[in-house]
Amino acid sequence: MASLNCFVDDEPLTTVNADGLIVATQTGSTAYALSAGGSIMSPNTAAICMVPICPHTLSFRPVYFPDSSVLCLQVPSDARTAATCAFDGRNTTTMHPGDYVLVRSSPWPLPLICHVSACSDWLRALKCKLYWNRRTK
Q: For residue range 66-83, what is the model confidence (pLDDT) as tens digits?
């Protein structure tokens, strides 16, 4: 179980007790966040989402913040164990009690190449990949 103190713009939010925590933007890690119970986020939404993985309380649910927010995730100094932090599932590092990571949106947005428009391409992909409202009659 991970234990993380969470701050948003230097304001304490909560201490997460969960199997893990996903932090994602609208163009990164959204499928992973979705599989853990997060919402689908439009690529035009300027936000950062925080999605707990199997939280150990019923009151902590996915939370979305403006993309101008800075999140601080800290392993509490009295934590029983270290935590592993993975970046896009590739690079990992061990966070020991007292260590923290700051998360913020990049000032350089990811340019997207669109067939029609960002909105229509995204909606078409959602309908196709998720089989929305398709069932046999």
A: 999 999 999 999 998 899
Total number of domains constituting the chain: 1
Give rounded-to-5 percent helix, strand, coil for the chain.
15, 40, 45
* Segments forming the whole domain that contains residue 81: 2-110
Separation between Cα atoms, residue 15 and residue 75, nearest integer Å: 9
Which CATH number do you get for residue 35?
2.60.200.30
Query: Which two three-digit tokens encode residue 110?
Result: 């990811």
Distances (CA, A) of 72 to 40, 99, 114: 23, 10, 33
Domain-embedded: residue 32: yes
The encoded tokens of residue 48 equal 């950062």
Asked whether residue 27 is domain-assigned, the answer is: yes
Q: Which two tokens stand for residue 6?
A: 């969470």
Whether 38 shows a pLDDT value over 90: the answer reads no
Tell me if 122 is assigned to some domain: no
Dihedral class, residue 65 (left if φ above 0, else alpha if ψ from -120 to 50, else beta): beta
For residue 46, give the 3-state DSSP assignment. coil
How are strands ordered across the β-sheet holding 71-74?
63-66, 47-55, 11-25, 2-8, 71-74, 100-103
